[in-house]
């Protein structure tokens, strides 16, 4: 009986041993097969193909400090060469509108790690003397950037200057154009307020807004007054549409950008084909100033200059109503052309 049990045990051990040896041999063979296949398609290196125009955002975020040094003029030529930095022509331009919020829009877009802004208004396309200096002069006015970043400049005079659309078209017929607008009467008063402040600083007198905006001879709206003429958005846009399709324009709501900036900035991100990176963390309301300030990171915050958000002078309500009625048909046409409607009177 004992011998039979021992024989049965040896038989089971033999079967188990055979199975174990077979498994080991199979694994060895399998590993060998994988080793042979690895050079063709290693499993760990199977990465989906990158999307076109992929922007190395994490890298750009870490290198913001270098770009800041460049803007201050502290970076060396060796740093520029090592980091493959270039001065690029803008791929998007904020062309207007004056007193619509162009500076606020530019500064807020600069929160995006794939955007680099030209700090000053270049006035290349609207200034004959600057334009005569050539495109290389214009490029040299641009900030240093990484190749995949988008350079943006803003010069609000572009929108109302007749020669500018053709000049920009000759530089880049596929450029993206941003127009930020506000309720036209409010914008006109804001325009007046800025000029008035400049006059007062020089101890000069200036007419009241009502006298400038209304023709005293006809009692009608004075379209020769530049602040009024600038607010007839559709007249200027029609000139631009002779050169660029409407799809290359994006209209930003300047009033909404002041009150609730994030939704407007997200629309611009999509228009520029940028991944969404600007968040509510980057924007915080400053109760003292009365508008939103910018948070780039845990240590660096920025508010717009104190000259922004000037208090407007009181304007005769009858003049305000007359201006709103005057602008109304132009506004309706502007809505129709752009496909964006505003709650303007």
From TrEMBL:
Tell me a GO cellular component: Golgi membrane
Keyword Membrane: yes or no?
Answer: yes
**Protein localization:** Golgi apparatus membrane
Primary location: Golgi
Q: Does the keyword Endoplasmic reticulum apply?
A: no
Please list the residue ranges annotated as the Sulfotransferase domain: 90-334
What is the enzyme's class at the highest EC level? transferase
Q: Please state which protein family the record places this protein in.
A: Belongs to the sulfotransferase 1 family.
Annotated TM spans:
12-29
InterPro entries membership:
NST/OST, P-loop_NTPase, Sulfotransferase_dom
The membrane topology noted for this protein in its Swiss-Prot or TrEMBL record is: Single-pass type II membrane protein
Annotated binding of 3'-phosphoadenylyl sulfate, by residue:
99-103, 182, 190, 292, 308-312
Descriptive protein name: Sulfotransferase
Lineage summary: Eukaryota, Metazoa, Chordata, Craniata, Vertebrata
Species assigned in the record: Perca flavescens (American yellow perch)
Extract one GO molecular function annotation from the record: [heparan sulfate]-glucosamine 3-sulfotransferase activity
Which Gene3D superfamilies does the UniProt record give? P-loop containing nucleotide triphosphate hydrolases
Active-site residue list: 99 (for sulfotransferase activity)
